[in-house]
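The following record pairs a protein chain with its ligand, glycyl-adenosine-5'-phosphate.
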Amino acid sequence: MDQQAETGAIKNLEDMSELVSLCKRRGYVFPSSEVYGGINACWDYGPLGVELKRNVKESWWRAMTDRTDIEGLDAAIMMHPKVWQASGHVEGFTDPLVDCKKCKSRFREDQIDAALVAQKKCPSCGGEITAPRQFNLMFKTFMGPLEDSAAVVYLRPETAQGIYVNFQNVLQTSRQRIPFGIAQIGKAFRNEITPGNFIFRTREFEQMEMQYFVKPGADEASFETWKELRFQWHLSNGIRPEKLRLHQHAEGELAHYAKAAFDIQYEFPFGWQELEGIHNRTDFDLKRHEQFSGKKLEYFDEVGKERYIPYVVETSAGCDRTLLVLLVDAYRAGADRVWLKLHPKLAPYKVGLFPLMKKPELMEYTDRVFADVRKQFRTFVDEAGSIGKRYRRQDEIGTPYGVTIDYDTLSNHTVTIRDRDTMAQERIPAEKICQVLQERIESWKP
Ligand code: GAP
């Protein structure tokens, strides 16, 4: 079967539990602190997960900083507590929390069906629910030895504020001119009321955010540009176009800082959900930091000889959520195998090397090929079990290519290269493995 195209129906992911189990079994994602029974909604990335995550970040970082108008930043997670007063998070970063008096379940009121809310009914058991209480999502801790109100600091709920408070530092040191952007990848924390759906909504996660500073009045055009660029980025990672859409925030949905917002949504097995947000944040944040810090956060336009507080267009993607989308979108199940159709540039391993049998002459040849290929491509050598089993093990973790070294290799220095998606095999000169891999990775189409 390995030489033929897949026959019969090919299924996509229908149930998240299949993916959760694959991720655990193959080393993508483990439940956190599992030896202690785990901790709700916390996950650890295993050997494959950490590689995929690095590749996601690399793809994002390149898309952002392989241009002359965007600079990078890595700000601290803990910031001056006034930052969060200025940003509006202390006052307004809340979700309406309701409890069921009968079954004690806890919900976000805005996620319950409106008819049930009107009747004050629990969606789980039909019992009576409490009136909503506004629950702030920021994690609080204390800096230093004293646990009093003067020592309270927050774990940042978004990375964006680190960018705003460094606006002047970056502007002056990089000598950028408006329009320009600042990109940052880092952890963010939210004490979510209803985390879940695997790594979709967790309390600790990574964001990939970029704030683009523009002249007031140029914000709407820039917003349109970034909406399009970000949508294209997800497509460039191989996500199926029919699974992505843009959703515009209605007036009542807008965050406290936004004049306009679009979500890029993905159709998960549990429905259409946000993957990335693009926001027109106006001059809200810089203005508030001016007020609260007393420091000028203006820009002087040397050409127009005018001063202004720039407007900001923000692109904000979840790194974990992007990784989840990639895995969900890549999942395929056929009659005899499961494979992850990951874009080869993102796959943890680019190639599997398989000596046909565990014989010294084949192993030696494999070692020589490995020493060469691994310089350019992350390579996994597997010599255990039948060749079909080895192909399927690599298929299941998304390795796009497999190279088999057999007895013909020893005599004519050719190897078989197998394609994960089509299972087609081709015999090529061993000396051309790297060149062929490079060509195939570059020309891969979803
Ligand atoms: N700075 C703007 C901001 O944080 P957001 O829409 O609240 O906007 C942006 O978050 C992205 O961060 C989301 O689209 C999502 O990908 C990710 N994200 C937010 N909360 C998350 C959570 N609890 N778990 C995982 N990812 C999350």
